[in-house]
Amino acid sequence: MTNTATYLSPKAKAFWPLLMLVLVADFTSKRMAESRLLPLYTPHEVIGDFVRFTLAYNKYAAMGLSLGAYSRVGFTVIAVIVLVVLGVFYKRTPSDSAASAAALALVAGGALGNLTDRILSSQGVVDFIDVGLGTARFYTFNVADAAITCGAILLALLSMKGNADAQAAGTPAQS
Questions:
Q1: What is the pLDDT of residue 136?
Q2: In this structure, is residue 173 part of a structural domain?
Q3: Catalytic residue from among 26, 117, 127, 130
Q4: Residues 126-150: pLDDT tens digits?
Q5: pLDDT digits (tens, 9 = 90+) for 46-57
Q6: Does the residue 70 lie in any domain?
Q7: Which of 26, 117, 130, 145 is catalytic?
Q8: Which domain holds residue 20?
Q9: Would you say 151 and 100 are in contact if contact means Cβ atoms under 8 Å apart?
Q10: Where is 89: in which H helix or E strand?
Protein backbone atom coordinates (compact mmCIF):
# COMPACT_ATOMS: atom_id res chain seq x y z
CA MET A 1 0.00 0.00 0.00
CA THR A 2 1.40 3.41 -0.97
CA ASN A 3 1.11 6.33 1.39
CA THR A 4 -0.19 9.15 -0.84
CA ALA A 5 1.28 11.80 1.48
CA THR A 6 4.84 10.65 0.66
CA TYR A 7 4.30 9.55 -2.94
CA LEU A 8 5.89 11.78 -5.55
CA SER A 9 4.85 11.41 -9.15
CA PRO A 10 7.51 11.06 -11.86
CA LYS A 11 6.57 14.62 -12.83
CA ALA A 12 7.35 15.96 -9.34
CA LYS A 13 10.52 13.85 -9.03
CA ALA A 14 11.83 15.36 -12.26
CA PHE A 15 10.65 18.94 -11.73
CA TRP A 16 11.51 19.94 -8.16
CA PRO A 17 15.08 18.65 -7.85
CA LEU A 18 16.00 20.03 -11.28
CA LEU A 19 14.42 23.40 -10.51
CA MET A 20 16.44 23.60 -7.27
CA LEU A 21 19.63 22.47 -9.03
CA VAL A 22 19.29 25.21 -11.65
CA LEU A 23 18.57 27.85 -8.99
CA VAL A 24 21.52 26.85 -6.79
CA ALA A 25 23.95 26.45 -9.72
CA ASP A 26 22.90 29.79 -11.21
CA PHE A 27 23.01 31.73 -7.94
CA THR A 28 26.32 30.22 -6.85
CA SER A 29 28.04 30.67 -10.22
CA LYS A 30 26.92 34.31 -10.44
CA ARG A 31 28.21 35.13 -6.95
CA MET A 32 31.52 33.41 -7.75
CA ALA A 33 31.75 35.36 -11.02
CA GLU A 34 31.15 38.63 -9.19
CA SER A 35 33.88 37.91 -6.65
CA ARG A 36 36.50 36.32 -8.92
CA LEU A 37 36.16 37.82 -12.39
CA LEU A 38 36.92 41.45 -11.66
CA PRO A 39 37.44 43.89 -13.21
CA LEU A 40 34.30 44.02 -15.34
CA TYR A 41 34.54 43.09 -19.02
CA THR A 42 37.97 41.47 -18.61
CA PRO A 43 38.12 38.05 -20.33
CA HIS A 44 39.54 35.08 -18.40
CA GLU A 45 40.33 32.16 -20.72
CA VAL A 46 38.79 28.82 -19.75
CA ILE A 47 39.20 26.83 -22.96
CA GLY A 48 41.62 29.04 -24.86
CA ASP A 49 39.86 31.87 -26.65
CA PHE A 50 36.82 29.70 -27.39
CA VAL A 51 35.29 29.74 -23.87
CA ARG A 52 36.06 32.67 -21.60
CA PHE A 53 34.56 33.97 -18.38
CA THR A 54 33.93 37.70 -18.63
CA LEU A 55 31.92 39.44 -15.91
CA ALA A 56 29.20 41.72 -17.28
CA TYR A 57 25.87 43.08 -16.09
CA ASN A 58 22.87 43.10 -18.41
CA LYS A 59 20.04 45.50 -17.57
CA TYR A 60 18.12 44.30 -20.59
CA ALA A 61 16.94 40.89 -21.82
CA ALA A 62 18.43 38.25 -24.10
CA MET A 63 20.65 39.63 -26.83
CA GLY A 64 20.26 43.22 -25.65
CA LEU A 65 16.48 43.46 -26.02
CA SER A 66 15.53 46.69 -24.22
CA LEU A 67 12.46 48.45 -22.89
CA GLY A 68 14.45 51.63 -22.33
CA ALA A 69 14.12 53.18 -18.89
CA TYR A 70 11.43 50.59 -18.05
CA SER A 71 13.62 47.52 -18.68
CA ARG A 72 14.08 46.47 -15.05
CA VAL A 73 10.40 46.78 -14.14
CA GLY A 74 9.15 45.55 -17.50
CA PHE A 75 11.29 42.43 -17.63
CA THR A 76 10.50 41.70 -13.97
CA VAL A 77 6.77 41.78 -14.74
CA ILE A 78 7.27 39.68 -17.88
CA ALA A 79 9.26 37.10 -15.87
CA VAL A 80 6.52 36.85 -13.24
CA ILE A 81 3.88 36.35 -15.96
CA VAL A 82 6.03 33.68 -17.63
CA LEU A 83 6.44 31.89 -14.29
CA VAL A 84 2.67 31.89 -13.75
CA VAL A 85 2.14 30.44 -17.25
CA LEU A 86 4.83 27.80 -16.58
CA GLY A 87 3.03 26.94 -13.34
CA VAL A 88 -0.19 26.37 -15.28
CA PHE A 89 1.68 24.18 -17.79
CA TYR A 90 3.23 22.20 -14.92
CA LYS A 91 -0.17 21.66 -13.33
CA ARG A 92 -1.59 20.44 -16.67
CA THR A 93 1.36 18.13 -17.34
CA PRO A 94 0.42 14.46 -16.88
CA SER A 95 1.84 13.00 -13.64
CA ASP A 96 3.89 10.40 -15.57
CA SER A 97 5.52 12.96 -17.90
CA ALA A 98 8.98 13.39 -16.38
CA ALA A 99 10.56 14.75 -19.58
CA SER A 100 8.03 17.56 -19.94
CA ALA A 101 8.39 18.38 -16.25
CA ALA A 102 12.19 18.49 -16.60
CA ALA A 103 11.90 20.88 -19.54
CA LEU A 104 9.55 23.13 -17.56
CA ALA A 105 11.92 23.01 -14.57
CA LEU A 106 14.83 24.17 -16.71
CA VAL A 107 12.87 27.13 -18.07
CA ALA A 108 11.32 28.02 -14.70
CA GLY A 109 14.63 27.68 -12.84
CA GLY A 110 16.37 29.91 -15.35
CA ALA A 111 13.59 32.48 -15.25
CA LEU A 112 13.67 32.50 -11.44
CA GLY A 113 17.46 32.86 -11.45
CA ASN A 114 17.43 35.91 -13.70
CA LEU A 115 14.40 37.35 -11.90
CA THR A 116 16.34 37.11 -8.63
CA ASP A 117 19.14 39.23 -10.15
CA ARG A 118 16.67 41.83 -11.43
CA ILE A 119 15.07 42.13 -7.99
CA LEU A 120 18.31 42.15 -5.97
CA SER A 121 20.46 44.45 -8.12
CA SER A 122 19.87 47.58 -10.14
CA GLN A 123 23.02 46.67 -12.12
CA GLY A 124 21.08 43.97 -13.92
CA VAL A 125 21.51 40.26 -14.52
CA VAL A 126 25.00 38.83 -13.99
CA ASP A 127 26.39 37.33 -17.21
CA PHE A 128 29.81 35.75 -17.50
CA ILE A 129 29.97 32.86 -20.01
CA ASP A 130 31.59 34.19 -23.18
CA VAL A 131 31.82 31.83 -26.17
CA GLY A 132 33.30 32.49 -29.59
CA LEU A 133 36.43 32.76 -31.67
CA GLY A 134 38.46 35.97 -31.70
CA THR A 135 36.13 38.88 -32.27
CA ALA A 136 33.27 36.62 -33.45
CA ARG A 137 31.56 36.07 -30.09
CA PHE A 138 28.09 35.00 -28.97
CA TYR A 139 26.25 37.12 -26.42
CA THR A 140 27.62 36.72 -22.88
CA PHE A 141 25.22 34.56 -20.87
CA ASN A 142 24.84 32.67 -17.57
CA VAL A 143 23.66 29.31 -16.19
CA ALA A 144 20.03 30.53 -16.09
CA ASP A 145 20.14 31.48 -19.77
CA ALA A 146 21.61 28.08 -20.68
CA ALA A 147 18.88 26.32 -18.66
CA ILE A 148 16.13 28.36 -20.35
CA THR A 149 17.55 27.56 -23.79
CA CYS A 150 17.93 23.82 -23.06
CA GLY A 151 14.43 23.67 -21.56
CA ALA A 152 12.89 25.45 -24.54
CA ILE A 153 14.65 23.12 -26.98
CA LEU A 154 13.50 20.08 -24.99
CA LEU A 155 9.91 21.38 -24.94
CA ALA A 156 10.03 21.89 -28.72
CA LEU A 157 11.41 18.38 -29.29
CA LEU A 158 8.79 16.83 -27.01
CA SER A 159 6.08 18.77 -28.81
CA MET A 160 7.29 17.53 -32.20
CA LYS A 161 7.51 13.96 -30.87
CA GLY A 162 3.99 14.23 -29.45
CA ASN A 163 2.63 15.44 -32.77
CA ALA A 164 4.46 12.67 -34.66
CA ASP A 165 3.16 10.03 -32.21
CA ALA A 166 -0.40 11.33 -32.56
CA GLN A 167 -0.19 11.25 -36.36
CA ALA A 168 1.22 7.71 -36.31
CA ALA A 169 -1.68 6.63 -34.10
CA GLY A 170 -4.13 8.23 -36.51
CA THR A 171 -5.38 10.81 -34.04
CA PRO A 172 -5.29 14.53 -34.65
CA ALA A 173 -2.29 16.32 -33.16
CA GLN A 174 -2.90 18.89 -30.45
CA SER A 175 -1.71 22.42 -31.08
A1: 96
A2: no
A3: 127
A4: 999 999 999 999 999 999 999 999 9
A5: 999 999 999 999
A6: yes
A7: 145
A8: 10-167
A9: no
A10: helix 71-92
